[in-house]
Amino acid sequence: MIEAKHFLWKTEGKVGVITLNRPEKKNPLTFESYSELRNLFHQLKNEDQIKTIVVTGAGGNFCSGGDVHEIIGPLTTMKMPELLAFTRMTGDLVKAIRHCPQPVIAAVEGVCAGAGAIVAMAADLRYGAPDAKVAFLFTRVGLAGCDMGACTILPRIIGQGRASDLLYSGRSMSAEEGLAWGFFNRVSDQVLDISMQTAKELAAGPTFAHGMTKKMLHQEWNVGVDEAIEMEAQAQAICMQTRDFHRAYEAFAAKKKPVFEGN
After folding, report:
1. For the domain that residue 74 is a member of, what is the CATH number?
2. 187-203 as b/e, with b when 16 or more CB fall inside 10 Å?
3. Total-model pTM
4. Residue 252's pLDDT is what?
């Protein structure tokens, strides 16, 4: 059973909802919340009853990044081994999001900066409120833009030139830009409702196959076209052995809507 201390966790049917919950500071992350988030996404691999995940923030903001006083300050006093342990741990959070089989949806309102922008970037789908401001602001604190996989993932979402603009400048990307550039799948003033609706629709679908789609989307970044086609042939053949595939055919033959069960 999943429990959380440093953010809110709840389930609605087959949907798990993570709410970053320090609204007085625009929901920054701490050493503890980074670690707990990473562990939660690792644990989701074994949570068969949870089919999709929504990540959101309390109080009208998504996440302001690493807490200045609880993370940034202490980092200035650390030696290289401690610094590397921290940066690897934060990168492990992105790996855990990408490797958990459930589709992850980021519902982004207001401030979405630094590590918050990375968490949104790592999600499978992103829905933004009209006031969403996404900033990969690492250069603003004297760091490189290559944080937590940003230099490999962000260009694949919005393109190399646009990613370079954001990662060099550290400026905010508006919701309008984010939608036009493909960072946001949709912009709405009902962003959490839309995210939950999408999550529930995905959870009611062929969830084994969704997990395979996510796996292929991630793994095929590193292979050529011929190899990707072979990987997809094997993945689809595996999906064709599931009961959901048979359920879909049987429902079609009976002129009914299929009811998927994820197996």
Report:
1. 3.90.226.10
2. bbeebbebbbebbbebb
3. 0.93
4. 86
Residue 142 CA: distances (Å) to CA of 85, 117, 172: 19, 17, 17
Count the domains in the chain: 2
DSSP structure class, residue 29:
B
For residue 8, the SS3 value is: strand
CA atoms within 13 A on the CB side of 202: 26
Asked if 247 and 258 touch (Cβ cutoff 8 Å), the reply is: yes
Closest C-alpha to 154, from 130, 126, 128, 131:
126
Whole-number Å distance between alpha carbons of 145 and 134: 14
Q: Quick one: 95 and 145 in the same domain?
A: yes
pLDDT tens across 52-94, in order? 999 999 999 999 998 888 888 898 898 999 999 999 999 999 9
Contact call for residues 62 and 28 (beta carbons, < 8 A) = no
CATH number for 241: 1.10.12
pLDDT at position 14, please? 97
Query: Sheet of 133-135: strands edge to edge?
Result: 111-113, 133-135, 172-174
Contacts of 3 (CB under 8 A, 6+ apart): 9
CB 231 within 8 A of CB 220: yes
Q: Which domain holds residue 236?
A: 207-253
Return the bridge partners of 36, or none.
none
Report, as an integer, the average pLDDT of 83-111. 96
Measure the CA–CA gap between 249 and 239, rounded to whole angstroms: 13
Structure token pair of residue 116: 């918050």
In a domain, 258, yes or no: no
